[in-house]
Design brief:
The protein is built from one helix and 16 strands. By secondary structure, the protein is mainly beta. Strands 1, 8, 11, 13 and 14 form a five-stranded mixed beta sheet that branches. A five-stranded antiparallel beta sheet has the order 2-12-7-15-5, with no helix packed on it. It binds (2S)-(carbamoylamino)(hydroxy)ethanoic acid and nickel (II) ion. Pfam families: Ureidogly_lyase.
C-alpha cells in the first residue's frame, strides 16, 4: 500500500560527533589522535582537523568573527543555505554550546534537517556545497571564529521549505 510518508516536523537533537557529522564536514576539537607536541614540548598541536576550501579563480580563504544573537525556541527551520564555492567553519569563542543544522542534498534541495548540539569545545567545518542553517547561537550573544571563502561568483544558495521544521529548546 503506498501512503504518503509523513515526517514529523519536530527535529531530534543529537550530540555532535565526528562520525555522525562525517558526511557534512569536520568536527574541530582537540582530538588526541591528531595531537603532536611542538615548540619544545610546550604546545600540543591538534593537527589538520579540517581543510578550508576556496574554489574558483581568484578565490581566497578569509577569517571572520560572527557575533550571533541567541535563537528563541521553539525555533522554526524555514530555510537552509549552502556555499558552492567554499567551505565554512564555525569555532565558538564565547565558551558556550551552539546548534548545528545540516541536511543531505536531495536532488538539488535539502532533505530533512539534522540537528546537532555542539559543545563549547567543538567547532564545525561545513564542506563546500553542504546544506546548513545559518548560525544558531544559544542563550546569549556569542562570538565565533568563522573561516570561509571570498572571491568572484555567488557563493550563497538558499532554499525555503514549503513547511517549517521545529526545533524545541535544547537541554544544553
Ligand atoms: N551569510 C553568512 O555569511 N553566514 C551564513 O553563511 C552562515 O552559515 O551563518
Ligand atoms: Ni553559511
Amino acid at each position: 500500500m503506498t501512503g504518503l510518508m509523513v515526517t514529523s516536523p519536530f527535529l531530534p537533537i543529537q550530540l555532535l560527533t565526528k562520525t555522525a557529522f562525517a558526511s557534512f564536514g569536520d568536527v574541530i576539537e582537540a582530538d588526541p589522535s591528531t595531537m603532536r607536541l611542538i615548540n619544545g614540548g610546550t604546545t600540543e598541536r591538534f593537527h589538520a582537523l579540517a581543510t578550508a576550501e576556496a574554489l574558483g579563480e581568484g578565490a581566497s580563504i578569509i577569517l571572520n568573527i560572527f557575533r550571533g544573537q541567541p535563537r528563541a525556541f521553539p525555533y522554526s527551520v524555514t530555510m537552509m543555505e549552502r556555499h558552492p564555492f567554499g567551505s565554512q567553519s564555525f569555532s565558538p569563542l564565547s565558551g558556550r554550546p551552539f546548534l548545528v543544522v545540516v541536511a543531505e542534498d536531495d536532488g538539488g534541495k535539502p532533505g530533512v534537517p539534522q540537528v546537532f548540539l555542539a559543545g563549547a569545545h567543538q567547532g564545525v567545518n561545513y564542506r563546500a556545497n553542504v546544506w546548513h542553517h545559518p548560525l544558531m547561537s544559544l542563550k546569549e550573544i556569542s562570538d565565533f571564529l568563522v573561516v570561509d571563502r571570498t572571491g568572484p561568483g555567488n557563493n550563497l544558495e538558499e532554499y525555503f521549505y514549503s513547511e517549517p521544521f521545529i526545533i524545541e529548546e535544547p537541554k544544553a
